[in-house]
Amino acid sequence: MAIYSFWVYDRHCNCIYQREYSPLTASTSTSASATTTSQTGSTPRLSQSNSALNNSSVQRFQQSGADNSDTTISNNTSLGSSSVNNKIQELLNNGSINAINDNNVSKLLFGTLFSLRKISISLTSAPASETTDDEVFSSHTSLNKFNELKSFQTLNYKVHFYETLTGLKFLVVTDPTIRDLQLELRNIYENHYLNYVVRNQLCQVEFKEHEVISNDKFIQSVDAFWSGLPEFIS
Amino acid sequence: MSKQIKQLGDDIWKTKVEKVNSELFTLTYGSIVSQLCKDLNFNYEAVNNQLFKMGYNIGIRLIDEFLQKTQLSRCTNFRETAEIVSKIGFKIFLNITPIITNWSADSKTFSLILNDNPLADFVELPDDGKALKELWYSNILCGVLKGALEMVQLDCEVVFLNDVLRGDESTEIRVKLIQILKDEVPAGDE
Amino acid sequence: MSTSATSPMANKNAPLPPSPAHSSQTPVLPQSPQVQQPQRHIQHDDATVPTQELFTKEVNAIALDYLINECIPLSVRVEEMLLEGQSEISAAISELKLETAEGEEGIDNETQRKDKFEPGTVTFLNDESKFLHLNNLYRIENYGYEIGLKITDCLIYMKNSNPNEATVNMRLVEVLEIMKFICRDVWKIIYLKQMDNLRTNHIGTFVLIDNNFRPLTNFYSSLGEEDTLRKVQPYLQFPCGLIKGILTSLGIESIVKAEVMNGKLPSVSFNVQTNFNNGGMSKMM
Fold first, then answer.
1. With bands split at pLDDT 50, 70 and 90, how would you rate the model's confidence at B136?
2. What is the pLDDT of residues C254-273, one digit of tens each?
3. Which of C70, C147, C158 is the closest to B54 by Cβ?
4. Domain boundaries, given as residue ranges, for chain A
5. How would residue B13 be classed by pLDDT, with cut points 50, 70 and 90?
6. How confident is the model over B110-118, as a mean pLDDT?
7. CB proximity under 8 Å: C 124-163 to B
8. Which of B80-89, C130-139, C206-215 bottoms out in mean pLDDT, i.e. has the lowest?
9. What is the DSSP letter of B98?
């Protein structure tokens, strides 16, 4: 289990925050399911440094027995708390912040979600709705809560997704075994983003191209939030 | 539906909102407008414009506060939007519930009648022969609505039609849906 | 008390007494009628509404927060307009253009600037020559001052009409009592918390400390702490003006300066120098 990276895109499709925690690496060449081949193809590029490649995949398998038990996990944290804390600290220190907002991976990740989101809606909406007048919003705005995209996954990773009505998109890339984290993403929007971006008079809420969220408070509080989850480290 | 919306607005106001005295809010806004009029040499058109901009800036941020408090999902049509603006939006921020009326035939335009306006309690416009005709004292509200609605993809035109401060019968804000903004597409796509 | 140089502007920031002197900024400033403020005493509106009800009306505190915050970008925009207005006038004079101006240059500015206005951004911070300009600081202080001037009566009235409050001995004659009134009542009603500390040297200087000043709880520049402290000054002018305004309304002249305590927001201290020199005060909060 691990949380690999966290992304925020604004309504103009720009990546306004990007944080890498653990490098995501293609684990022991288990190929991904057929439906998501194209995504797996790009995964190795998510990893910025390959140094931890072996470590992370090995550890993940060692711990996999405990994955489904919350109690075991919390015990782990309390028992070896200092070593766990060290590990967390190491990940936080080594991970990059806003380093690859505009690169290809970022764009592909967004594009993939964008397309999946579109598909999930088009599959269910009546074709006629495309031509109706403006009176019904749902034909234009693709967000319909029943067809909301929550996540997609390969054998290597899982991408959790939360979109606000204001068009912000929160993404977290994790190990595929991890529980659904949409609520956590929502929490980040409603608390961390609201406090440190919206309520921060020195921070814009309309980002121009290449502008990113870079105030320390946001970074710290979001880091503390993710690293406080039992699922954070592998 | 309308009842549920009202209930939600009332509940949020009662349980989830930190409150300040309304009089203080009125005085604060009044002082700002008064100062602005002086600074802009009683050019009321410019004052209206600045008030609108203040509101626009606020609305763009306030929508996130709104969504956090309400946890609402997207409206299905503009009539629902109107209900939510009045019974939840106005309710949870200003503790008033404007009346929705004067729908246009195409359901794209409606009016909000503010029987009670916390921005303008006990306010009198200056008797300089201009203000009564030119100043929209509470124009900040139009900006807030404009900004907040735009952020949820509703491109609207929001203007004051009447204001009791000017001697009109009622205080009326007109909201017109211009278009529903499409999702933006990543650069290079399509 | 912070003695560090964490707030560079604080020192340079000479007292900015709100006074009509400001009008020198604008070419002409007729002392024409102002927007009437809400009347201080309520008896002359709806006689049917009991006073009690009037003073229990409330709005969301967030609405007031955003309104006050928005004064700062507003002030910067006003500053820009005034500067542009001036330069346009001089340009018009030098070019001797015909009757295009008609004295409505403000509107022309507006239309020209329309595309420049970008809601939701913080571009107003970019030009520090305007953002941190004395005119701007002064104007923001004046927003606070005007409000301070007007709310005192209202606050005292509210306090006295609230049956839940112990009967208030509103003998606001002693400066110390007035300071306590600001710390407790004013702060509580505007910022929803009281000041944390009040000190005095007994010869007219007071230090009011708020360890968690509400408007600045989420105030962080993306350029780091130093930049945050640079940019905080305009945001401190407002409460300074507020305190000053309240004191003025109670007949006390003062100079109020604020600074961030030990460079750590949201701790703010307000240094209030009054013209009150009577040493008759002994009790403290």
1. very high
2. 999 999 988 888 899 999 99
3. C70
4. 3-228
5. very high
6. 94
7. 139, 142-143, 146-147, 150-151, 154-155, 158
8. C130-139
9. P
CB contact under 8 A, C218 and A217: yes
- Band (pLDDT 50/70/90 cuts) for residue C27 is very low
- At position A14, the amino acid (one-letter code) is N
Contact A184, A173 (CB under 8 A): no
Q: List phi, psi (to 5°) of C265.
A: -70, 155
Which residue positions in chain A have pLDDT lower than 50? 28-79, 127-134, 139-143
Q: Mark which residues 141-180 of C lie under 8 Å from A by CB.
A: none
* Per-domain boundaries in chain B: 2-180
C119 touches A: beta carbon within 8 Å: yes
C243: pLDDT strictly greater than 80: yes
Rounded to the nearest angstrom, the minimum Cα separation between C73 and chain A is 10
| Residues ≥6 apart with Cβ < 8 Å to A228 | none
C-alpha closest to that of A151 among A133, A172, A123: A172
* Chain C CB within 8 Å of residue A217 CB: yes
- Tell me the whole-structure pTM to 2 decimals: 0.79
Tell me, what's the ipTM?
0.93
> Is C36 exposed, middle or buried, given 0-12, 13-18 or 19+ CB atoms closer than 10 A?
middle
CATH 3.30.450.70 fits A3-228, yes or no: yes
Both tokens assigned to A99: 């380093």
| Beta-strand relationship, B154-162 and B99-101 | unpaired
Q: Do A136 and B76 touch (CB under 8 A)?
A: yes
Residue A213 contacts C where some CB pair is shorter than 8 Å: yes
> What CATH number matches the domain at B2-180, 1.20.1290.10, 3.40.50.2000, 3.30.1380.20, 3.20.20.140?
3.30.1380.20
Distance from CA of C38 to the nearest CA of B (A): 5
Rounded CA separation C151/B29 (Å): 12
Domains of chain C in start order, with CATH, are 59-131 (no CATH), 133-285 (3.30.1380.20)
Interface of A with B in 149-208 (CB under 8 A): 164-167, 189-190, 193-194, 198-199, 205-206
Chain B neighbours, 3+ Cβ pairs < 8 A: A, C
Per-residue confidence (pLDDT) for residue B3, from 0 to 100 = 86
Q: What pLDDT sits at residue B12?
A: 93
pLDDT in tens, A67-124: 333 333 344 444 456 777 887 787 777 788 888 777 888 888 888 888 888 777 777 6
DSSP string, C3-62: -SS--HHHHH------SGGGGGGSS----PPPPBPPPSSGGGS-TTS-HHHHTT-EEEHH
